[in-house]
Amino acid sequence: MSATQKAHIFHSFGLDQLKLEEVPMPEPGPGELLIRMKASSLNYRDLLMVTGNYNPRLKMPLVPCSDGVGVVESTGDGCKTKPGTRVSPIFARTWHDGPPFREMLKRTHGGPLNGTLQQFMVVPEADVVEVPEQLSDVEAAALPCAGLTAWSALVERGPVKPGEKLLILGTGGVSTFALQFGKILGAEIIVTSGSDDKLQRAKDMGAHHLINYRSSPNWDREVFKLTGGQGVDHIVEVGGVGTLEKSIRSVRPGGSIYLIGVLAGKEAPLDLTPVLMQDIRIQGVVVGSRRSFQNMNRAVDVHSIKPTVDQVFSFEDAVKAFEYLKGGSHFGKVCISIQ
Ligand SMILES: NC(=O)c1ccc[n+]([C@@H]2O[C@H](COP(=O)([O-])OP(=O)(O)OC[C@H]3O[C@@H](n4cnc5c(N)ncnc54)[C@H](OP(=O)(O)O)[C@@H]3O)[C@@H](O)[C@H]2O)c1
């Protein structure tokens, strides 16, 4: 009888369609690694993928989740990596350095390629990075998409300079990493959230100023006051059009808005005049390359950064983890322990 492993798979859209199945054990070909997965972490994108809101034409069946960490079990011919090495698959295969390119969008884990929510996974050796030693498996599993996106925005695209003012929207996965990276870059940080409890936690992590966007719906005015009428230098924008107009009013002339998410909508009439009149940079950000991932991991090591893990679910309870993420009560990352 041939060997099998377990994987979470959906054959049609819907969280109720995500099932744990017994599937054939993958085998590494030349230049590939067989990885025994230890942990996975959820991104908002994974939820959109499973529910059909990311790509309605997505090819299924599919194993979801872009992010994970595991230990090399065995290697194909020509690999240098030793069995036992702890690695993470990169978000987009073949994006090793430099700017993004069109083909790499077709090689992202968790859709269209199978993702990390399985016991074993085969990945080309060139498409993994080693994991910072000081991190647990679930902590390390938080890095590949959320961590790297925040890093790419603030360091590779920014860069944020010491003393500059950084506005971070929300307290989810990307935003809590942005807070941690903003701290090591020496920024003065304003965090917004819909929850006072979460704002308190952001303060405990070192945020300098806090704004509740529910009790202060005109939060851009609060930002204006906090910056002496000047506006901030950088904004981590996860809301999309639902927040962009206020972000445009919150940034200083010549400042930067890193457009990362569209949680609060993607289509609306928008007055773009201030963008040109004030020389504002709106910079899209898509995760990052292998080189940026390695750069980030060095900073994570040197500064002993611990990713903010809100809750860890068991492998069998993966659907509950997705439901928890959907509920929006999390602060930081929702993770899944695999073995
Ligand atoms: N471009 C990329 O490469 C990339 C990479 C990763 C993620 N993303 C996108 O970035 C977004 C965030 O991802 P994530 O994984 O960090 O999600 P997440 O962990 O689910 O966090 C979402 C957080 O956003 C905040 N939020 C929601 N609506 C908001 C609003 N109207 N104003 C301000 N904050 C709001 C909430 O914070 P509070 O609960 O504190 O209010 C929530 O916790 C998603 O749209 C995701 O698809 C893009």
Fraction of residues in β-strands: 25-35%
**Largest sheet geometry:** 7 strands, mixed
Average pLDDT figure: 96
Instruction: Name the ligand types.
Output: NADP nicotinamide-adenine-dinucleotide phosphate
CATH superfamily of the largest domain: Medium-chain alcohol dehydrogenases, catalytic domain
CATH-defined fold name of the largest domain: Quinone Oxidoreductase, Chain A, domain 1
Discrete helix count: 10
Helicity range of the residues?
25-40%
Large-scale geometry: globular
Taking all Cα atoms into account, the compactness measure Rg is: 20 Å
> What oligomeric state best describes the polypeptide chains here?
single chain
Parts with pLDDT < 50 across at least 5 consecutive residues? none
Terminal residue distance: 23 Å
Order of helices and strands: EEEHEEEEHHEHEHEHEHEHEHEHE
**Helix/sheet category:** alpha/beta
Counted beta strands? 15
Class of the largest domain, according to the CATH hierarchy? Answer: Alpha Beta
CATH architecture of the largest domain: Alpha-Beta Complex
**Tally of domains:** 2
